[in-house]
Task: structure prediction
Amino acid sequence: MELMDILAKLKDDHKIIEDVLHNSIAILIGYKEDVYLKERSSFFGQVRQFIRNYDKLIVRHYEFEETYLYPDLINEYGDEAMILLEEHRRLVQYRDRVKKLVEEGDLKGVLEALRSLYDLAREHLNRETNLLKKYISDKGVPLSID
Result:
């Protein structure tokens, strides 16, 4: 796969992921506690749907980055890029924690885990975008990822 194709796909993926973060997690963690208590099964159903979407879209995105982009980033930038790989692992661990807490019916735990996942995902996207800007500049690629 050519570098321009990889970067263009990542740019598109990142826009979709931003939407998922905003339209799924941010909404779920923004509910008031009394709403959670009244609509508990609906809330857990929405979280389960988020997890399915996360597995379909975001985990595949990680696999794509780790196959086509991260080897070069790690070679070029070392630890700065390794952080991104480690964050992928942590994000999947947060997803697994959310799944477990939903199964246990732990409302507060789910909210805390979703918040952690959301916060790290936002940090990760920002860190990755900044490194990709540097990479694109260093490679002289005529593409903006903003």
Remarks:
- Helices lie at 3-30, 33-38, 40-68, 70-77, 79-104, 107-139.
